[in-house]
Design goal:
By secondary structure, this protein is an alpha+beta fold. It has one domain: Arc Repressor Mutant, subunit A (Orthogonal Bundle). Helices cover about 50% and strands about 15% of the residues. It has a three-stranded antiparallel β-sheet. The longest helix is centred in the last third of the chain and has 11 residues. The termini are far apart.
């Protein structure tokens, strides 16, 4: 059963942010499906956020974009 909070989040993002399955999410972020699955199962704090719907795991595109932005490193300009 999907919790009300998860359901509301899904409905709010339905048009703006498609849901990705593991293969799609892994491809989108440039990592392997294995890394994605293992990171999630081990509770890796570096792993992207996901939504659990029953036994199904899905990733919101907006969550993946935010996660990638947080990992971005920009080198300071040298004067």
């Amino acid at each position: 059963m999907v919790h009300r909070e998860q359901h509301e989040k899904l409905m709010a993002h339905e048009v703006d942010s498609p849901l990705f399955k593991d293969p799609e999410a892994a491809h989108y972020i440039g990592m392997s499906e294995s890394w994605l699955r293992q990171s999630r199962m081990r509770g890796n704090p570096e792993a992207p956020p996901y939504i659990k719907i029953g036994k199904a795991v899905r990733y919101l595109k907006t969550d993946l974009d935010d996660w990638l932005d947080r990992l971005r490193h920009v080198e300071p300009e040298v004067a």
